[in-house]
Protein: Tripartite ATP-independent periplasmic transporter DctQ component
Amino acid sequence: MKFFKILYDNFLEVFAVLAFIMLIFLTFFQVCSRYIFQAPITFSEEIGRFLFIWISLLGAAIAMKHDKHIRLDLFQGRMRPHLRHSLDAIVFLLIFGFSMLVLVQSVKLSGATTRQIAPVSRIPMAYMYLILPISALFMGCYAMRHLISRFQQFLQARREQ
Structure:
């Protein structure tokens, strides 16, 4: 039971690590087949590109989960705690809104690509585009979680004043 809880809590990280390991092995075998055996694997470059896209977008969701996304904090250190929490809440609200916009539009995009097939690997392109709504959904959920947390911190800071 404990194993499943850890897997659930760290699903994105586990999936991203597995995809990264697959990318490493695929790239290694591609280089070996091309330079050692003089017989390149034709689909490996395309699959590697798809894995890289998936890993990048999963990494963005993981960064949002841990609140480690890129931010400019030039003025944030000089603000009072309740203002800092208010600014954070506004930022997370904007991230949530943008994530929901990306989610809606990427579902449309994934639907539009169901008949497209990758030229070399013959994988449906909808599988490649599927990471867009998945990452947007996770980022939106994490942004909402952080928004609620910042709101609670804001209320706590107001009570302490």
Summary: Residues 99 and 122 are 30 Å apart (CA to CA). The chain has a mean pLDDT of 87. The longest helix spans residues 81-112.
